[in-house]
Structure to design on (393 residues):
């Protein structure tokens, strides 16, 4: 007789929220079985049904993000936030432009910016965060130059979990006539975002985290006053005789067959968030995060980063255990305690550079999701405690 496998305690939701709500799994499968055809490419009933879901999701997400509801076609789908940022950054910046961004950014921002600096004649300023993990809006104001075209900010850090003051940054950008874009990979679906109220001009999102959708879908929401250059081209299924890619949205930023399974997942994820309420989900996750911080802080040798206060914070935090590489701690948590975390630099090297953790190969990240429990948190604390005792002994 096989021994029953211990339940995996999954604390890597900043990478991918898992599991998904059962309603998301069911709707994805049911819709794809029933209407998994190319939307908008043909006039038969199933193609129209698929196209209707796609168009209605554009409207729904535009409303969800506080975009321009009279221009839902400017909600354009892609693979993920990285894909969206590779439309936004080279689509807004050209030779001679200056971009302001931060040490909090993921490589999905850092690398496109660095390529434009090296190869495209763009100038860049990378601003540090303060001791609590926040970028100071006044620092952004002081960094703006006459040729500053864009301020690009990671709304929620995937390493230290801090939520940046988008409203204040957006107000500065609007006053100075500079475009403001955010990477909402960690915050979309976790906290309320209103692009109009926050003066956000462009937003990148992904579906597989707090939006409760599947991998392989994300996108960009572009305000009406923003001109985003095309950086790729291909099929649209519309006006196929045209020799050049269409300039109208959404085709301006979309090429080829869309990810209909991902569209269905995002639709069902929106249903789930509406039922649960993102404020209630976030509040519950933050209660678990507070429990985790309190437990870890009591363990000798644990160092926590930027979580003295959990105000304006995601349920994501990074630690190190004195005397042990983070990778080793992660392996022991996995093998001996069945706790899944994420170790390393988390694709955000400037965060770790500022924290002083690059030389020790980063840190160990816990990220809590809607299906975690107090028992999961207590098991994680117990696991770190036992590893710490073994190290000390």
């Amino acid at each position: 007789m096989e021994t029953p496998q211990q339940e995996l305690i999954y604390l890597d939701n900043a990478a991918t929220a898992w599991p998904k709500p059962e309603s998301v799994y069911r709707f994805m499968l049911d819709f794809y079985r029933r209407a998994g055809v190319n939307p908008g490419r043909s006039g038969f009933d199933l193609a129209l049904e698929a196209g209707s879901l796609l168009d209605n999701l554009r409207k729904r997400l535009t409303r969800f993000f506080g975009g321009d509801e009279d221009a839902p076609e400017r909600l354009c789908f892609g693979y993920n936030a990285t894909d969206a940022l590779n439309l936004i950054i080279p689509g807004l910046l050209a030779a001679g432009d200056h971009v302001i961004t931060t040490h909090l950014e993921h490589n999905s921002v850092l690398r496109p910016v660095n390529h434009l600096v090296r190869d495209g004649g763009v100038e860049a300023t990378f601003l540090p965060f303060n001791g609590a993990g926040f970028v100071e809006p006044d620092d952004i104001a002081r960094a703006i130059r006459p040729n500053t075209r864009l301020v690009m900010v990671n709304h929620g850090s995937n390493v230290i979990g801090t939520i940046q003051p988008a409203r204040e940054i957006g107000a500065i950008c609007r006053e100075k006539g500079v475009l403001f874009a955010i990477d909402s990979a960690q915050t979309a679906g976790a906290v309320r975002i209103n692009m109009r109220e926050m003066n956000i001009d462009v937003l990148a999102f992904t579906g597989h985290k707090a939006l409760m959708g599947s991998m392989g879908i994300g996108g960009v929401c572009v305000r009406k006053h923003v001109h985003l250059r095309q950086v790729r081209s291909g099929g649209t299924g519309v006006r196929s005789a045209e020799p050049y890619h269409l300039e109208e949205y959404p085709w301006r930023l979309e090429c080829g067959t869309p990810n209909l399974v991902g569209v269905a997942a995002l639709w069902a994820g929106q249903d789930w968030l509406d039922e649960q309420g993102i404020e209630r989900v976030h509040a519950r996750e933050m209660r678990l995060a507070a429990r985790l911080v309190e437990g870890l802080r009591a363990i000798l040798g644990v160092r926590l980063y930027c979580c003295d206060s959990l105000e304006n914070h995601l349920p994501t935090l990074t630690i190190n255990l004195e005397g042990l590489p983070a990778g080793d701690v992660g392996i022991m948590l996995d093998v001996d305690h069945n706790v899944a975390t994420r170790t390393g630099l988390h694709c955000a090297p400037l965060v770790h550079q500022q924290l002083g953790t690059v030389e020790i190969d980063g840190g160990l990240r816990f990220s809590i999701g809607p299906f975690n429990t107090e028992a999961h948190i207590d098991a994680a604390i117990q696991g770190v405690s036992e590893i710490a005792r073994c190290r000390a002994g």
In short: The mean pLDDT is 95. The radius of gyration is 22 Å.
